[in-house]
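Just curious: can you write whichever protein you like plus the matching structure tokens?

***
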Amino acid sequence: MAAYKRVLLKLSGESLMGAQQYGIDPSRLADYASDIKEACAMGVQMGIVIGGGNIFRGLSGASKGFDRVKGDQMGMLATVINSLALSSALESAGVKTKVLTAVRMEPIGEFYNKWRAIELLEQGYVTIFSCGTGNPFFTTDTGSSLRGIEIEVDAMLKGTRVDGIYTADPEKDPTATKFDRITYDEIYARGLKVMDLTATTMCMENNLPIVVFDMDTPGNLLKVLRGEPIGTYVSNEKA
């Protein structure tokens, strides 16, 4: 039995690299498609946002001389490539999908609007949102927050390569301890980098909870959807 009716799953572009240094690892893509298919079989309506950092990241491009606006536009196109790849993997697994874009580029994807997105979700489509917000200077984390709020999800699920939020970076600090639950206020007070500040503030102000979990372990997505206590649950409510 699913604990959520409708969710927004945020995936990083880097996660699609798998063991590679660049691009898309077909085996990682297949693992994601398998988990998402099982989630759909539970009756969960799922929207997805994928970053583009495995192909191009606008901010790092700007540091190398790219115009920031053009760099961010290149990053938006990278998210379209990733969205099409995931859509293709899901369709091969028998899952109906639709790619919506925040910038017009029919027939590659359908131009986004809230009502069409909700209609597709209710018809059983996995709906993949690409191009972030469609504007430069906004991350795909902010795009995820915006889309999650717009389509009225029960929670945003942030799939990462670590199993939750820690007091410090666990890859750098072996003494870091994990939070099972944490409030948005505490995230600000501790200066924790869960998402960028714009995205975090949007979720806080619109009372949208986030579950941060390890997406790279097969089966974890299903555990989160069943309400099992893995990862870290972020909300405005104290434990």
In short: The chain has one domain: 6-235. The CA atoms of residues 8 and 148 lie 6 Å apart. DSSP finds eight helices and eleven strands in the chain.
